[in-house]
L-seryl-tRNA(Sec) selenium transferase (Dyella koreensis), 477 residues
Amino acid sequence: MSCMTESEVTSLRHLPAVAAVLATAEAAVLLERHGRVATTDAIRQAIDEAREALRTAPAAAPSATEVAQLARGLLEARAPGLRPLFNLTGTVLHTNLGRAVLAEAAIDAAVDAMRHAVALEYDLAEGARGERDDHLRSLLCELTGAEDATVVNNNAAAVLLCLNTFALGREAVVSRGELIEIGGAFRMPDIMTRAGARMVEVGTTNRTHPADYRNALGEHTGLVLKVHTSNYRIQGFTAEVGARELAAIADAAGVPLLNDLGSGSLVDLSRYGLAKEPTVRQAVEEGARLVTFSGDKLLGGPQAGFMVGDRVLIEQINRNPLKRALRVDKLRLAAIEATLNLYRDPDRLAERLPTLRFLARDKADIEAQAHRLQPAVAARVGDAFVVEVGNCLSQVGSGALPLDTLASVALLIRSRGSQSELECLATALRTLQRPIIGRVADGALCLDMRCLAEADEPLFLAALAELDIGGTATHIP
Ligand SMILES: *Cc1c(COP(=O)(O)O)cnc(C)c1O
């Protein structure tokens, strides 16, 4: 820095001190919001950055208020990772974005359970210790036709627990066509090993017959497993043994059949214009002694894994010490109970359950919304981009109905310049205070409007107002 001019040295000298910045009205807000330690750190960092900037490009030193504003930017860049965002990816149940958005009734119930003591394991009539699962048992039985029910952390845990309860040190029989990997290291063979079960594969990838199962069943068999191939389909020259037939085979051998549905719906989705998924009630009725399914896939509730079936088997599961390690907390139990309650009134389900509301949303409605928002988005992204309303395809996500897409409408944003400008825009939207997540495909940034609730449009516009592509454009290498 030997070649600094006198004016540069002066502007460096004019940089405000930490104490001066802390005394500003702007800093008072930061102190209230982020506390003294984080605010002071951020102010120091802002002053350091301003000093560096002045050294490389001479200018007037920022005022104390301007430094406080820089500090605010630094503090807000450290906003919580789990802050809300807009899922405009077109995947309704996006595992990386938290899957189902909960119903208002579920949110209220969870908040109440957070704020107050609840009778989690307390029998109010008897004034004695109660059962954590009792709150859900009767609801699950009513909605599925099963004799008994229990719940754990997620469906992966439900499958693990069933395997461990019935096939520890024994054999678990499964078709080669159903050895699924769900992603996130959930592979059926690995889960079996960890559960302490010996996997016995039967049939081939494309064809499995009743005799394959019959020949494999013996005195060492602990469990027969049927897995819904939720995230892929085998087509062509295929054969599988249906659940009803397999249940009869397992029963004849005196071994329980577990049917892992994965997404398992509690209502017939074709009623809402969607493809048919097996309902849990059907799976129970087909004769599987145990049925497992997720809470946060098509069911539209919080993360959970349900096991429904024969009372003696559910009791055995509940006595497994692993059940205690995989149990759910009061917040989720409250949210699950409220979500399941909505299913008692299927006529109003689509208006109350966001997952179903999004999935069943009318294309004309999505299109109207896209037209409503197009001018604001076009104005905000500026002349460097073209913003059009266009058709796109949404999907259910989370492995449910993998081959079915839903006709939807998006704002399609294309760059008048280079593709890297489009990438920059996508990044700028992703890094907003309330991020907007779309997907880039065919040279366009596609913002699928399906999952933007009408009530959230003002929030969306407010988030968009923070967009500063000028600022991000300087990051283009
Ligand atoms: C999704 C899925 C699981 C795992 O369920 P999580 O609730 O995500 O743990 C297990 N089996 C099948 C068939 C699935 O589709």
